[in-house]
Amino acid sequence: MRRLRWLALVATCAVAVTTLLATAGSAQVASPAARTAPVTIEFWNYWDGNNAKAIEALIERFNRAHPAIRVKNVTFPWGNLFEKMQAAAAGGDLPDVAAGDIAWMANLHRSGKLADLSKAARKGVNLKDFYPELLRYSTYRGKLQSLPVSTNNLGLFYNRDIFRRAGLDPNRPPKSWVELRQAAIKIAGLGGGIQGFEIFTQPGEGLTWQFQPYIWQAGGEYLKPPSYTEPGFNNRAGRRALNFLAGLILSDKVAQVGQWGAFDKGQAGMRVDGSWMVSIYKDQAPFDFGTATIPVCNGCSRATNMGGEQIFVFKGDTQKVAAATTFALWLTSTKVQVEWDMRTSFMPVRASVAKDKGFLRWVAAEPRFKPFVEQQKAARARPPIPQYSATSDAFSKEIEKAFYGKVSVAEALRNADAAVRLALRS
């Protein structure tokens, strides 16, 4: 999975966020009586490649349309961003506005350094237009301290060439767990080491992130909302989810443990992965591929997991806070978000974007994005708490044992429940 590299870094950076921000000055600086030059604000982010080109183009447009404000784009590699913030915090010079991973928001909100955007948003932002699950990352103790600026979700990718070889209809991907299992068995029957369905089984957030949709579909929870202080998977829903995936490995033998990447090489018929992979496979896959929503268990509800970024403003000089807020609201507006998503292949954070005629024409030109757009409404938020990364690591280590057959499904879930409870107290 292309983004698993950053998932592994979340735990380290989550701690660093709180530490570095605590060292920054929290007092607001009175603005000068007048400014003859434009208010210059720094926007820190880690977008690279095509995403970097897209944000540069949008910033140039914003600067032209807002002559009193100049946004300076400052980018860092994902793994270096918080090191730079730590150095800036020590010098009392945090950026004015930044975009960060949703997994960081719990710590950022609790730092006390984020500006309250509630008043500005009430003047013309329809918060009900944002998907509610994304706004879980935006609010803290009744204050709106960030806004969704990008998102993605997990869906089913399948190799249409392999489907044809296995006698499956490449225009009819599986819609249910039963159909997925049946297709995987046929594909594995081709031999040659081809997996029917590739499953991420390595410890870490990648395993947790991929496993959560199955729990949610079956009616369980990873952590019980709204407090997120108690596990919600050591039950019938959790057993149903883990029995299904472990059964594909241990009983049906259509998936292998301890590896990831077979699908990329044409050695697996299906796998669940992120919406960003559509563009990558379009350019690089040596096979014909299709996409679909994640298959659903019988009698269950659709669910998927989400990733993405939020944009937030740091407290500071009054005029700079106002300028940074103006930029944040502009970047998250429907019109700008339509272009942002079409340039970057991110999924809509607002319902109005998903209904926009221009955006729909873009999706029609590459229909493999359509399943991800459709299921964004069913995308769930991971628990927005500081201990999330610790719980994810603890959970994944216990679930991995069931994938290897070292413990039973019931024992793995009991052990994971105990480990997650311990992590929540950390």
Please explain how this structure is put together:
With 426 residues, the protein is α/β, with parallel strands linked by helices. It has helices at 4-22, 49-65, 81-90, 105-110, 118-122, 132-135, 160-165, 177-188, 205-217, 236-250, 277-284, 318-331, 334-344, 351-355, 357-365, 370-375, 388-403, 409-424, and strands at 39-45, 69-75, 97-101, 139-140, 143-144, 147-159, 270-274, 289-292, 304-313, 379-380. Strands 1, 2, 3, 6, 7, 8, 9 and 10 form an 8-stranded mixed β-sheet that branches. Strands 4-5 form a two-stranded antiparallel ribbon. A hairpin with a 2-residue loop joins strand 4 (139-140) and strand 5 (143-144).
Task: Name its key features.
disordered N terminus, alpha/beta, eight-stranded mixed β-sheet, 426 residues, 18 helices, globular
Terminal CA distance reads 29 Å
Query: What radius of gyration results from the CA coordinates?
Result: 22 Å
Number of DSSP helices? 18
Class of secondary structure makeup: alpha/beta
Mean of residue pLDDT values: 91
Break the fold down into its secondary structure elements and pairings.
Elements: H1 4-22, E1 39-45, H2 49-65, E2 69-75, H3 81-90, E3 97-101, H4 105-110, H5 118-122, H6 132-135, E4 139-140, E5 143-144, E6 147-159, H7 160-165, H8 177-188, H9 205-217, H10 236-250, E7 270-274, H11 277-284, E8 289-292, E9 304-313, H12 318-331, H13 334-344, H14 351-355, H15 357-365, H16 370-375, E10 379-380, H17 388-403, H18 409-424
Parallel strand pairs: 1-2, 1-3, 9-10
Antiparallel strand pairs: 3-9, 4-5, 6-7, 6-8, 6-9
